[in-house]
Amino acid sequence: MSAKEIVQQFYKSDALIDSEVIKDFLHPEVLVEWNSSKGFIKLDYNSLLNLSSELSKAYVRSKVRISHIIGENDLISVRYSHFVKTIENPREEMLLAHFIVIWEIKDNKLFRGYQMSQLS
Fold first, then answer.
1. What span, in angstroms and rounded, lies between the C-alpha atoms of 115 and 37?
2. Which H/E stretch holds residue 95?
3. % pLDDT > 90, the chain
4. 120 falls in which pLDDT band (50, 70, 90)?
5. CA dist., res. 57 & res. 18, Å (int)
6. Cα(67)–Cα(7) distance, rounded to whole angstroms?
7. What DSSP line would sit under 27-94, residue for residue?
């Protein structure tokens, strides 16, 4: 599987709200540097598992709509919008945020991520 396909599969899966699924995609030494609306966050393997677990408590469904994906060797850039359905209102899909991220793939896993986000 190519680096681009790995990233596409990651965002098509329920990994963002399922800590068991996300394990399949993360390199054990993964690091994500995230510039969010709340400031700068640095996430490692365990932090990403915890984030996925926390998201699963609030959302029953997660959907990513990729508008751009560009790859060069093991570097993949993705621009996407993240939509969710809440536990309180599972019939209504709401836009959570817009993201752009550059992923570095190592050993067919997500190794380094450089992400920026903006709430909707």
1. 11
2. strand 93-106
3. 89
4. confident
5. 10
6. 13
7. EEEEEEEEEETTEEEEEEHHHHHHHHHHHHHHEEEEEEEEEEEEEETTEEEEEEEEEEEESS-TT-EE
Write the CA distances from 10 to 13, 37, 90, integer angstroms. Answer: 5, 23, 22
pLDDT at 42 over 90: yes
Q: What would the two tokens of residue 91 be?
A: 């019939």
Where residue 62 falls among pLDDT bands split at 50, 70, 90? very high
- The CA-atom distances, in angstroms, between 28 and each of 33, 44, 45, 104 are 16, 9, 6, 13
CA-nearest of 22, 94, 110, 103 to 62 is 94
Q: Which of 65-69, 77-81, 90-94 comes out lowest in average pLDDT?
A: 90-94
